[in-house]
Amino acid sequence: MSDQASDFVLQAVSFDTLKGWKDDDPSGLFEVMRRCRRQITEVKPHRTGSLGLSSEDLLPLLNAAEDFTPSSPASARAFFERHCRPFLIRRKDGNSGFVTAFYEPDIDVSEEPDEIFRFPFYRRPDDLIDLDNANHPAELDGAYVFGRLQDGRVSAYPDRRAIDEGFLEGRGLEIAWAKSKVDVFFVHVQGAARLRYSDGRIGRITYAAKAGHPFSAIGKLLIERGEIDRAKISMQSIRAWLACNPEQVDEVLWHNRSYIFFREAPVADLEAGPIAAAKVPLLAGRSLAVDRMIHTFGFPFFIRAESLIHLDQGRPFGRLMLALDTGSAIVGPSRGDIFTGSGDMAGESAGTVRNDADFTILIPNAAAGRFG
Question: Residues 194-216: pLDDT tens digits?
Fold first, then answer.
């Protein structure tokens, strides 16, 4: 384990001790695992996180899943029991893990701007570059992984306020225009959206890059100001506050300097979720965003959240999920974001998820020996 992962340990546990494991049905994961295998073997492996688990370590599990069709929930669980060993992620500071949720919004848009549709979704600008050890300017915080290249000099890219005030206008980067600046902001937070045009066409956008500034939660800002009680904070309560305080919308949204750029994605199957960071469609209720600096895409995690009951009809949440996405706010070894699906109902489900959770990673047998 690298120094980056030294603030937590993996504790070997048994499937018998995983609370909720025997009630789960992970049968739906096998098609996603087959897609993951094709991505890794035919396109390119995923970046290895600081935990040290690679796509190569994952392949024995994916290979075994290639021709396996579960006959029952028990047979699906037995497959993972045969091919993996579970390890509880324990933070050395004693804090528990934490989950939130995200979804794919449906947004009404126009191809052209007018007095109603005024707020754009932008493609990635050509002066936005990826930063690495070779080109990272000394004066820019090491957390910045994007910057602006202008006249041979690299600097921080303009932030949300500068872009909202017109920095990118006239460059032909607009994909479509929405009615609401708040809607655009929350699509930035979610990282994807289905776009509904007035002629009935449906498009899709997904994350392409970001300006590089750190994510700053506006919910935390509103709590600190005393505008919303901490116990009541949710996407819904934040939206309601913004609707009631239109004169403060810009100030609050600009608190989050992070700005997201998108690319247009194919809409071959509206029932399938958006294609996110792992380059495979997300499966509602079974896809997890993780900290990609620590974890590697494609690995299974069993998430148990006793207090999260509204996603499973009053029962505590306990599901096997695949790490298929990431996000600016998803930082830490046991921090995750659950994908709840597409549309308004998925948004209602996602908006109130803020729960402590246990994270157990399933490591294929051949690699598990490195961890005890």
Answer: 999 999 999 999 989 999 999 99
What 3-state class would DSSP assign to 194?
A: strand
Nearest to 248 by CA among 258, 238, 257: 238
Token pair 């920095």 is found at 167
H/E stretch holding 366: helix 365-368
Q: Which two tokens stand for residue 194?
A: 């289905």
Distance CA(264)–CA(259), nearest Å, equals 17
148 and 210 in contact (C-beta within 8 Å)? Answer: no
Tokens 């932030």, residue located = 159
* 96 contacts 88 by C-beta, under 8 angstroms: no
User: Distance between CA atoms of 312 and 265, rounded to whole angstroms?
Assistant: 30
Q: What percent of the chain is predicted at pLDDT more than 90?
A: 91
Locate 332 and state its tokens. Answer: 């830490």
Q: Alpha carbon of 21 to those of 26, 33, 153, 306, 340: distances in Å?
A: 10, 19, 53, 13, 20
Query: For the packed helices 73-83 and 55-65, what is the interaxial angle rounded to 10 degrees?
Result: 140
What structural domains and CATH numbers belong to the chain?
3-101+273-371 (2.40.40.10), 103-216+256-265 (2.40.240.50), 217-255 (no CATH)
Interatomic CA distance for residues 5 and 51, integer angstroms: 6
Q: How confident is the model at residue 327 (pLDDT cuts 50, 70, 90)?
A: confident
- Distance CA(81)–CA(301), nearest Å, equals 13
208-226 burial: b if 16+ Cβ within 10 Å, else e? bbbbbbebeebbebbbeee
**Most distant pair of Cα atoms in the chain: their distance:** 62
pLDDT digits (tens, 9 = 90+) for 249-306: 999 999 999 999 999 987 767 677 888 899 999 999 999 999 999 999 999 999 999 9
CA 271 to chain centre: 19
C-alpha distances out from residue 251 to 73, 160, 228, 246, Å: 50, 11, 16, 10
Residue 280's identity, in one-letter code, is: V
The helix-helix angle for 235-244 and 181-190 (nearest 10°) equals 160
Q: Which residues of 65-97 are buried (b: 16+ CB within 10 A; e: fewer)?
A: beeeebeeeeebbebbbebbbbbbbbbeeeeeb
Please name the helix (run of DSSP H) or strand (run of DSSP E) that holds residue 21, with its range, or none. none
